[in-house]
């Protein structure tokens, strides 16, 4: 690479995180500093996987999931290789080798390969853990548009859908189906759904809320196999619960980072492709990893959009301002005083729908009577669907679980992310959800996060509204807020209704 030659950047993968990186790099592509190539095994443009359940139940169309404009990218000079597959990365020659025999030379390369669904060991299902699973007809993981289309066909004929797995994605899919008038069955191994997030009491209340929403919940199930006929899946074989019949099985038992390419070229992998706090995966500062495939500074991938988009934004800014090392130059260590490392995003989880409202963050495993520095506060009102478990250390929340308490949840999220000290009398927090209360919760500041998927702040959305945005879609085009799971749409709509300052 010479001073007048564009830097060659190759991105492997084209999901939502890669799309954000590409958008961030467009200024460098447009002015000729960067030659950007994106290789995607899928034939589709980058789309929002969070909304696949909405597509499956017919609440939206496939085109509404698109996250990029193909014509705009190609006209800007981005080389899109859709339906192509990288089979090997040759680090010594700095080439990404393609399945068709071609090779893409690079000066810097980014792994944005995401994650694949974990397929449990079930009799009647043959798969290899490190390749894309070929599931029998009627079994799917809801990770692609094709999965959503297949599920939609089952729902159209009023088929009975079993959802295997009690995590957030499985619950959201079941809630979407229930909202559309279907009767899904949520089957999971633990005592209650969201077992890694909720405690025993919160889990019981969550299960009751799911049943009230129209979901059949079957807990404590050990699935051992599947039954099939000539048309495909007919039932899930379990220990203790017999065969649970169904017309489709949606598998939502977790995901595993796609690390095979990275491992094959000698990079370190564990729960993901191991990188430092600058997203660098090699010793030459030429290879990076972002999103669900990356284990950043020892932190496992969390499977949420917000951290991936934060990483993509940071990396785009870094690449635009720091060109690749010269071909024969030794790698220089990063200097945190000059280049601040990527910031870790919040781990707050939110679940809303069909009368359910669950917000959680941090660790709530501490018990009321445990010895140690943690102070535990619990409030429960099962008859009203309300529950709060709060763990603090020196007055600062380190973990919380709130159900049916929307205003208290909002206050706790701000305190948790700011590291603020809570009132000594914790019961004052509950007054925020008293409809007769005169007290108002602390207002979010301009730097507080509003959209947990994109990382957009209250200030960014306010500026978008002041600049003339009239709809949620226009706000999304301006700052990405509201383009992920949709959980912040109500807040954006409220801000759009406020009078714009003169």
Describe the overall structure.
With 502 residues, the chain is α/β, with parallel strands linked by helices. It is built from 13 helices and 25 strands. The chain has a 5-stranded parallel sheet, with helices on one face. The protein has a 5-stranded parallel sheet with strand order 9-16-10-11-12. A 5-stranded antiparallel sheet has the order 21-22-25-24-23, with helices on both faces. Helix 1 runs parallel beside helix 8 and helix 11 crosses helix 12. The longest helix has 17 residues, at 305-321. The mean pLDDT is 89.
Largest beta-sheet characterization: 5 strands, parallel
Q: Give the low-pLDDT segments.
A: none
Number of helices: 13
Beta-strand content bin:
15-25%
Helix content: 25-40%
* Strand line-up across the major sheet: 3-2-1-7-19
Termini separation comes to: 51 Å
Report the radius of gyration as a whole number of Å: 24 Å
Mean of all residue-level pLDDT scores:
89
Strand-pairing-aware structural class: alpha/beta
Number of extended strands? 25
Query: Globular, elongated, flat, extended or rod-shaped: what is the shape?
Result: globular
